[in-house]
Design a protein that fits this description.
This protein is an alpha+beta fold. The two termini are 44 Å apart. 56% of the residues lie in helices and 13% in strands. The longest helix is centred in the first third of the chain and has 31 residues. It contains 15 helices and 15 strands. The chain has a 4-stranded antiparallel β-sheet with strand order 13-12-15-14. Strands 6-5-7 form a 3-stranded antiparallel β-sheet. A two-stranded antiparallel sheet has the order 1-2. A hairpin with a 6-residue loop joins strand 3 and strand 4. It is globular and about 75 Å long. The structure holds zinc ion (2 copies). One zinc ion binds next to loops.
């Protein structure tokens, strides 16, 4: 193959974290291609990735069906037996006038992961049978957006926290569903990691030859190109007069997958600020109002997030109190503060270099969903303890407010474009050279 032909068949990718263009080599099973500048993974190859995804997704789906069909936890309190199956968690929340919390809990713990697994099986089966289907593209486009909202692992940690709380009240027994859900959470995690988006799009739509003018080692935006967020393909944009303004949205679609292309996320900073402000305002009622109202022998007792944590500590459940403190207090506050810092660093030179800033952003992106632990704990406790005046648990007004805090902080992290952190560094270097 001549040098010209080699250039013609390069597989170019623009890093979604720093925007640098790289040509990725042919990957063997077990290998991954990382961005040479920031270390972000551009593509990862497994052995028999399609068959592996189908096998994992099928096993996860069977585990989920078992988890939904059988009792999750049963409890004996002073001779009163109660047990819950997973679908009852949402149904009980609806019956106690918390339909929104019920919707969020059931979507994140059961419905979305279930739909994702069905999607993986359908799409990978089409790839295996080499039958092109229009819906395969739709499913593949949805995949990247679904990942953060599937919280089976968080629900599992919440179930363990609930167990510790429940052992104080009565004798707890774990149902078949509990163990099935553990297996499901693990298999779901493995399925999401097994889906090879790079290979998938290659099988679904091939690899259009790259624009010969695009060079590696330079930001895509500087070459008037853009990396597709969904399939990774580098698209050359038509030259326009506004090409110097890289923050402006462009109404182009990817030539391979049809997703909208943006040089930088449109209104990224404004949207992140707005969502952060909303989260900060919602954080006040989330902490001021009770998260859970417990009625025991006719006497009601309301506990806030902090109050519930202190009670756990006083009852000798220090590790669980620490988990709740980290998930419900530390994570939301740290996440909001770090995003404010990143927004400031996207405009001003700071003490951190771009790699450190990107790492900080990745951490805030990863930890946000773990704040849902307390909401899931409330959902499980409410579903299990409903014995009228004798013993019952109701969700307080803070449950919905806290749910909203978690969702808005997650949306804020998604709205922020990490490539802005590299743009400011590039601008500083350019200013230094030209001064
Ligand atoms: Zn990078
Ligand atoms: Zn694309």
């Amino acid at each position: 193959m001549t040098a010209q032909q080699k250039i013609k068949w390069r597989r170019l990718r623009a890093c979604s974290a720093c925007d640098m263009v790289s040509a990725i080599p042919v990957l063997r099973p077990g290998e991954q291609a990382c961005c040479p500048r920031c270390g972000h993974i551009l593509a990862r190859r497994h052995l028999h990735p399609v068959q592996r995804s189908i096998a994992l997704a099928m096993s996860a789906l069977i585990s989920l069906l078992v988890a939904v069909a059988f009792p999750f936890i049963s409890m004996d309190t002073n001779g009163l037996d109660s047990q819950i199956a997973l679908p009852e968690t949402a149904a009980t929340l609806v019956s106690v006038n918390q339909p929104l919390v019920a919707f969020i809990v059931s979507c994140t713990a059961i419905v979305l992961p279930g739909l994702y697994l069905v999607g993986v099986i359908l799409m990978q089966a089409n790839v295996l049978r080499r039958v092109p289907r229009a819906y395969s593209d739709v499913i593949a486009r949805l995949f990247s957006r679904m990942h953060p909202w599937m919280m089976a692992d968080v629900f599992m940690v919440a179930a363990l926290v609930s167990l510790v709380k429940l052992t104080d009240i009565g004798e707890v027994q774990l149902g078949v569903s509990f163990w099935a859900y553990c297996v499901f959470a693990l298999l779901l995690l493995k399925t999401t990691r097994s889906v090879d988006i790079d290979l998938l799009w290659f099988k679904l739509a091939g690899e259009p030859p790259p624009d010969l003018s695009i060079r590696c080692g330079i930001n895509a935006a500087e070459q008037h190109a853009v990396g597709c967020k969904t399939c990774g393909l580098v698209n050359a944009l038509p030259a326009t007069d506004s090409q110097s303004n890289i923050s402006e949205p462009d109404n182009y679609v990817c030539q391979r997958c049809g997703s909208d292309l943006y040089v930088r996320k449109p209104n990224s900073e404004q949207l992140t600020w707005a969502l952060l402000l909303t989260a900060a305002i919602l954080y006040i009622p989330a902490n001021a109002y009770p998260m859970m109202i417990t009625t025991s022998l006719g006497q009601s007792h309301a506990s806030t997030i902090i109050g519930g944590m202190v009670e756990l500590w006083q009852h000798g459940s220090e590790p669980v109190a620490v988990i709740i403190f980290v998930a419900s207090v530390l994570v939301p506050i740290v996440k909001m503060l770090v995003l404010v810092l990143l927004l400031w660093l996207a405009r001003h030179p700071g003490p951190l270099n771009a790699q450190q800033k990107t790492r900080l952003y990745r951490i805030t992106e990863l930890i946000g969903r773990w704040s849902m632990v307390d909401v899931f704990v409330v959902a499980i406790m409410v579903a299990l303890i409903q014995s009228g005046n004798l013993m019952s648990v109701l969700p307080g007004p803070a449950a919905l407010a806290f749910c909203a805090v978690v969702i808005t902080t997650m949306l804020a992290a998604m709205a922020f474009d990490p490539r802005l952190l590299w743009d400011i560094q590039g601008k500083q270097q350019y200013d230094r050279v030209t001064r």
